[in-house]
Predict the structure.
Amino acid sequence: MPSHVVPKTSFLRRLIPFGLGEVKPTHFRDMLGIVWKNRDNLPYAWKVITRGVCDGCALGVAGLHDWTIKGPHLCMTRLNLLRLNTMPALDHSLLADVSQLAGKRNDELREMGRLAYPMLRERGAKGFRRITWDEAYARMGKKIRATDPKRLAFFITSRGVTNEIYYMSQKVARFLGTGHIDNAARLCHSPSGVAMKQTLGVAASTCSYRDWYGTDLLVFFGSNPANDQPVSTKYLHEAKQFGTKVVLVNPLLEPGMKRYWVPSTASSALFGTDIADYWFPVAQGGDIAFMYGVLRIAVENGWMDEAFLREHCVGWEALKEATLAMDFAELEKNAGLPRASMEEFAKLMQQAKTGVFVWSMGITQHPHGAEGVQMILNLALTRGWVGRNKCGVMPIRGHSSVQGGAEMGAYCTAFPGVKTVNAENAAWLSREYGFDVPSWPGMTAVDMVDACARGELDVFFCLGGNFLRTLPEPDYVARAMENVPVRIHQDIILTDQMFIPAREEVLLLPAKTRYEQDDGGTETSTERRVMFSPEIPRQVGECRAEWKILRELAAAAYPERAHLLGCETGWAMREEIARVVPMYDGIQHLRKTGDAFQYGGPHLCPGGKFETPDGKAHLRAVELPPPAPERMPATPDTNGHANGTNGRLFHVSTRRGKQFNTLIYAEVDPLTGAHRDAVFMAAADAEQLGLKQNDSIALVNDLGRYEGRVFLADLAPGNLQVMWPEGNILIRRGVVAKGGGVPDYNALVTVEKT
Ligand code: SF4
């Protein structure tokens, strides 16, 4: 019987200080590099670090302190992003001929400096020319006024964007008569929002990070917090002192989750921390089958919290029936793990009194993302692990403030307060705003790009982001973006999507960073903490606060109605947010660094009282996704995996290296030692294919050819992983999760030796 216990680091190896000779981040050396990079503006960099709310991930910190640990909270992701906040303006004359810039990578474009002046490129021009803000507003206002609102769309990214920007963007979009407003959360946790809202009545983490401390079982499904939320490793180091067992359900045993050196914790910095206690190498896309298997074993043994299910849930009987109807052979094939593995996991759950389930893109970025989340919720509810201490379900967020995006209403399917877009709620919001709010749900981010391709949009406003790099099939995206008459990119740096011409014109609007933003701003963390980041004044060129640009744009389009926009200042806007989004009441009182509140308190759904119409949690059976061809019959290999690779089709998934979103910070990921062209592969597969470490190979499917090198890893056989966004050339567009609309960032490929 396979055991999924992760072996501890040996005593002798542990004695080697600072992980010398190991693949690991070199935090202290990298910090010196950051100081050097920001040497022209160190005083400002210091203010950002000590006063601002981090613009990296959504773990959440104000200055150097958070609400979970006593010591300092700082990581390399935040330090790497620092340069975006200290760099001077770029040389705008270089934009006069974009062919000179066309071959540059996005990290090279970023290094050129800040976008500091409004720029215009008309059809046929070689590049951009500088224009005044007045001209920019006049052009945009005239065009938008003449545009059918159904042919106008807004996409808002997640880079450092504050709640105020999200709020104003949705208000402006709806003021202009369009429901086409969406944000970057669509591409990551939209399936979580859908499944959680239906099941629990809330669409946010039900617990706090402090619940990790001393919970019996802390399970990470398809997530890699050591890379995506680095300071969480400090939480994990501390949680383990309280006896918490950490379990990974993931195709790859992420090295950073196996062992980590927390730089600000002396013992960990010196000798490292063994984080994961168990690793279940589920096949990519096999999580639902795995969880069904676990549930079936729990049902057969009576390991559920029957009282909780009876008193606080509906739908249990139907779920139980569907689970018992499942065939283990099929579940094993689909999960890529044998029944014994499911039994081991079920037993861990049975032995635990408390548990926290955390998940991320490994679950959501699949065609069955919402069903995967539903199964996580189902499992947690069978043990009553919601609404009490050391228990909860947590869709952990990778980008600062994506949590607030939908809560502020910058979402095509939600008004402020995550209210469904329908006639009744549109009438309510119209009364609040004093203008007619469209009652029709708009297009998702992915739909917007398809609408561009079909010629159904006349004006496309992109606040940050880079569809060219974030969406599958970049050539298609480029053609789609070129097919819009007017594109507007509001950003702080250049990206290569800006160089795609438009049918009429492309405008670049220079934005202030979150720290420069007039009247400060707020961000909401994964644990629902709304944190205030004060204005740290700095003026680069003619940059303006993002919410102000949006407001001025709307006023330019309809000056006669501009007074209805309100929100003349950031303070006035927060007063309005507190009124329109009652769960954010308190935001209007935040004034300085460290001011924060956790909406809903430490636990949502306390005592098993859910925010659904009947106050109960709604368990649901989901369909078992069909097994991918590569998971078809095979003899279990020596590790107990039931899938194997008896053919040449592999399931490839995309992953992150040292990067923040599409901003790549290093050619080699210090957590894994993998280069950007690495193709993560199980040793058993490499052997079967006659490959060894660093061999040049190509992954091929009908969409493209990805050239890379073999990188041997602890990976479930039959699966491969490549870096995102480079791997997008293999990903098929148009395959999105039914619930939520997130693209499926996985593909089937063959492997060729080159
Ligand atoms: S863990 Fe996240 S919130 Fe904390 S410093 Fe790093 S990037 Fe910022």
Q: What stands out?
A: Residues 182 and 445 are 6 Å apart (CA to CA). Residues 11-86 form one domain. Residues 54, 56-57, 59-61, 73-75, 77-78, 229-231 surround iron/sulfur cluster (CB under 6 Å). The first helix runs from residue 11 to 14.
